[in-house]
Write a structure and sequence with these properties.
15 helices, Farnesyl Diphosphate Synthase, mainly alpha, 307 residues, homodimer, two-stranded antiparallel sheet
Chain lengths: 307, 307
């Protein structure tokens, strides 16, 4: 399958909508209940979240929600909130005490552009604000949907999801014995998979998906997330720093736990392709027909991207 | 007014209920939607939140909710969630890039007991989990109340509240000109006041307070928060490290912006006493009668504590 124009148009549209939302949400005026938004902290939060990335997670929220007829502000605000969580995780992961990276999306990382304390607080601020945005009545009139989104986002991002995955990843770097295949898969499902799965789950929550369609979409999200991580590892192994906008080759250097290290490049590629097919099959199981084509394209795009 | 036995009994009861909730919430078994809870990260989150502190914020949630007839699990879970946010803020504030403290509640700080990366992630995990706990149907059957609690907590803890206050506090340390009185008051209202105000607001939200009673209680929370911060500054200026369980005298050493630095000790004490009276007056304005006695006691306790 080749990536078609319609997919690229929708990916660009989601990125633009997300940028617009983030820019508006991260304005200087305090909201009700806030006292003041300190200029430098706000600047760091904007630096960390605006003007960068493919906005894949927002795209997945928006297009998943669209499958169930939910469009507009609800999906766009949820998408922006999820992107805040993703961006906070990048800011904290890049810190000297964590992955110690100087470059992100072709620019200095937040703690290099500002300072370490500001980067920690900007990350904390983005994470906190994400829950504010989702819980705000402006996101959805139905408080049950807002509370469900908060709960699902917290579970995906927390100690049993993304934060826990990062903790396992750091532990693995200094572990005496290499991780097993199962351990690597679980680590990756937590570190990157959980937030990608939340993206499609959020669409199902916003759109009031049937349980069957929702769980098929969850399976799609899980397969896509796993394929995404393998593609990421392949890019790190093969890519160059300029094209990636972040330093390449660092997995091997740091003894990071990846499927490539365990199985080799060819087996990793085969597994990636298998997962893309599994993602496409899960879409068929939603019984939503031709409308899911755009998400099938996303699975291919994620697996075959060059940055 | 002297601090009576009933107040001490309720404070202890709230602390015990909070400890029980935190211990149960931070169990090893993953919840639905979580993949795994990594042992070391969980241990750090437990270290940072269990077995310490007066649990003043949980007490305020529980006793404010009780004023409106809301007792039991709803208030206790909300109290535990708020304490998680408070504990995360201590973990991050203690980091080398921030206040660089080695001692907290008489024990090594989290980054000393574990390591810096684990401390950052444990803080992130506690903050995220707080929103999970509040949004969970186990906290309240009414999703509107859960969503309101999430929103109020995020506003209090975020860039326009606690996180913003910490950013302003760090900026003030290196500022060329000292902060004005108004700037110090605003900084403190954000850094410590916002979360204390949320504590009583949460009680009002849980108990369905009338707008008048709710806003009077908010004024109580604001006055109590301001008195709390002055008492904290006085303790730092006069206290000794052993009694405090954290290093004393560091405000002056670091050129921290405090009222004592600007007005002197006597004026700071007078202001603290004025604020305690303002808090007590606000309680009278709730028109909830004798039931508010316990919160009046809390205002005195906060102002006169020795650690």
């Amino acid at each position: 399958m080749t990536i078609d124009e319609e997919f690229r148009r929708r990916l660009d549209a989601a990125a633009e909508a997300t940028e617009t939302q983030l820019d508006a949400l991260l304005g200087a005026a305090p909201l009700a209940g806030e006292i003041r938004r300190p200029a430098r902290l706000l600047e760091a939060m904007r630096y960390a979240s605006l003007g960068g990335g493919k906005r894949l997670r927002p795209f997945l929220v928006i297009e998943s929600a669209r499958l169930f007829g939910a469009t507009g502000e609800s999906a766009q605000r949820t998408a922006a909130a999820l992107e805040m969580v993703h961006c906070y995780s990048l800011v904290h992961d890049d810190l000297p005490a964590m992955d110690d990276d100087d470059l992100r999306r072709g620019r200095p990382t937040a703690h290099k552009a500002f300072d370490e304390a500001t980067a920690i607080l900007a990350g904390d601020g983005l994470l906190t604000y994400a829950f504010d945005v989702v819980a705000d009545p402006a996101t959805h009139a139905d408080a049950g949907i807002r509370a469900n989104l908060v709960l699902a986002l917290a579970r995906a991002a927390g100690l049993g999801g993304m934060v826990g995955g990062q903790a396992l990843d750091l532990e693995a770097e200094t572990a005496k014995t290499p991780l097993t295949l199962d351990e690597i898969l679980r680590l990756q499902a937590m570190k990157t998979g959980a937030l990608l799965r939340f993206a499609v789950d959020a669409g199902a929550i916003l759109g009031g998906a049937s349980p069957d369609a929702g769980s098929a979409l969850t399976r799609y999200g899980e397969a896509l997330g796993a394929a995404f991580q393998i593609a990421d590892d392949i890019l790190d192994a093969e890519g160059d720093t300029a094209a990636l906008g972040k330093r390449a080759g660092k997995d091997a250097e740091r003894n990071k736990a990846t499927l490539i290290g365990l199985l080799g490049l060819d087996a990793a590629r085969a597994r990636r392709d298998f997962l893309v097919q599994a993602a496409v099959d899960a879409l068929a199981a939603t019984r939503l027909g031709e409308a899911t084509h755009i998400l099938a394209q996303a699975a291919h795009f994620v697996a075959l991207r060059s940055n």
